[in-house]
């Protein structure tokens, strides 16, 4: 008897099909099947936020979903934040310019949470930003530069959107 399930997931705008075992997490699917290793594996039980992705428009922890739940859905990973030519997108550049990372382990999750916030709020308050990244743990930075990076990204995104 076949013990895998065929799924098709739109990842960063491209359709990706594969067979997965029913217990495979979306996190493992993204990293091991789709080879998108920007999404990081941290606690693997929904606490650290390192595995954050956008799932049908909402930020989720990909370690807490099964790959089969993504069948027919759309997922955006941190790789989807780059420009079309592969250069860093506005939020990624803001993180670089504000020195918002040290080891970088949390960074992809922070970027995804920042993107989710700025998609719905182009002028976030300090409290809005703290709330948006409240589920993302950073063990290095003390969060100050991450908050500054998100404020910088918000300013730059407003500039380009006119
Ligand atoms: S690895 Fe998913 S929340 Fe930590
Ligand atoms: S930069 Fe190291 S965990 Fe955030």
What are the salient characteristics of this protein?
162 residues, alpha+beta, Ubiquitin-like (UB roll), DNA polymerase, domain 1, 2 domains, 5-stranded mixed sheet, 5 helices, 34% helix, globular, binds FE2/S2 (inorganic) cluster
Summarize the structure.
The chain has 162 residues and is α+β, with helices and mostly antiparallel strands. The protein has five helices and five strands.
Task: Show the helix and strand layout.
Blueprint: E1 5-11, E2 14-20, H1 26-33, E3 52-55, E4 58-61, E5 74-76, H2 90-97, H3 107-120, H4 126-132, H5 144-161
Parallel strand pairs: 1-5
Antiparallel strand pairs: 1-2, 3-4, 3-5
Helix pairs in contact: 2-5
The chain binds FE2/S2 (inorganic) cluster (FES) (2 copies).
């Amino acid at each position: 008897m076949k013990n895998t399930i065929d799924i098709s997931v739109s990842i960063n705008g491209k359709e990706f099909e594969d067979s997965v075992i029913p217990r495979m997490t979306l996190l493992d699917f993204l990293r091991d099947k789709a080879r998108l290793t920007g999404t990081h594996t941290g606690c693997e039980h929904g606490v650290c936020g390192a595995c954050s992705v956008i799932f049908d428009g909402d930020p989720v922890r990909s370690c807490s979903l099964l790959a089969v739940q993504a069948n027919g859905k759309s997922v955006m990973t941190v790789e989807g934040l780059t420009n079309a030519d592969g250069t860093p997108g506005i939020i990624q550049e803001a993180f670089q310019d504000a020195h918002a990372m040290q080891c970088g382990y949390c960074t992809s999750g922070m970027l995804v949470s920042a993107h989710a916030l700025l998609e719905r709020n182009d002028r976030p308050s300090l409290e809005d930003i703290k709330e948006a990244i409240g589920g993302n743990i950073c063990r290095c930075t003390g969060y100050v530069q991450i908050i500054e990076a998100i404020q910088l990204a918000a300013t730059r995104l407003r500039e380009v959107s006119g």
